[in-house]
Every structure is written in C-alpha cells, then in structure tokens.
Write a structure and sequence with these properties.
Helix content: 25-40%
Radius of gyration: 16 Å
Oligomer: single chain
Mean pLDDT: 75
Structural class: alpha+beta
Shape: globular
Largest sheet: 4 strands, antiparallel
Low-confidence stretches: 1-37, 46-50
Strand content: 35-45%
Keywords: Signal
Organism: Streptomyces yanii
Distance between the termini: 41 Å
Number of helices: 3
Number of strands: 7
Protein name: Lipoprotein
Amino acid sequence: MTRKAARGLWAVLLTTAVMSTAGACSDDGGGASTKASEAASAAASAASRGSDVVASATAAAGEKLRGFKNGVNAKHDVKLGAVSTDRDGRATSKITVTNGTDSPKSYAVQVTFRDANGNLLDMVVVTIDDVGPKSSKDAIARSNRKLSGEVKVDVGTALRH
C-alpha cells in the first residue's frame, strides 16, 4: 500500500470513529453535527499531514471518548488555561470543569494542541472523575510529545456523565 493510500485510509477510519463518537454526545439539540464535522476535519487534517504521531494520538483520543458511555455535551462546563511547557518539554494546560448539576458527575475532555496556523499538533483526552454538585475541579492536559513554537489549546469535545 502506498503512503498516500495509507493516509487516505487513516482519514476515513479516523473520521468514522470521531463522527460516531460525537454524534451520540449532544444534549443541546443540534450541536452534535457541528462537533462531528469539526472533529472529522481535525482527524482528516492530521491524517493528510502524514504525521503518524498525530494520527496515533487522534485515534487514541477517539477510543477514550468512545469508552465514556452515555455522555452529554458539556463543552460549556470547561475552561482551559494558558499553555505552558513542563520540564520534559511537553505542552500543558490547566483544565477547570464546573459541575452545575445537583449530583456528582465525571467528565471526559478532549484537548487539541495547535500551532499558530491552526494545524493540529497533538490531541489528548483527560478524564476528571467525581466533580461534586455545584463545584469545580481542576486537571492538567499534557501533550503526548514535545511541541515547539507557539502552541494553542482548545476543547474539541467535552462529555459529562
């Protein structure tokens, strides 16, 4: 199989995986198709760039989100902090989730790391368990590898259950 064909296959597989995850995650009456489209675009972009590392991180993130059953869209519950670099050279960002419900909830937050041009550099999913009712809890998103240059973060998908 040629490298170009392999990248195309990765794009199809990743797009399918991300769209099936995002399509089942919305409780806001219409955001699921937008999330699926954005996630599929990120997956296709990663695959088309031919980066095995990014493709692997994207696949791992999709797998972790699929394992988070019966989640509802909670992107509005999540805030990301500024990007910094840890002593190992990996990009990090503080995640704060705020549970506005009356019962404890757990969260799965997909964080994307992008360069100044918006190109996907890396992707991770962080789980934050047992966030108390009407309270907040912090965690750290850490890139899978060293990233250089200007790095920005955003929330790809956030699920609550």
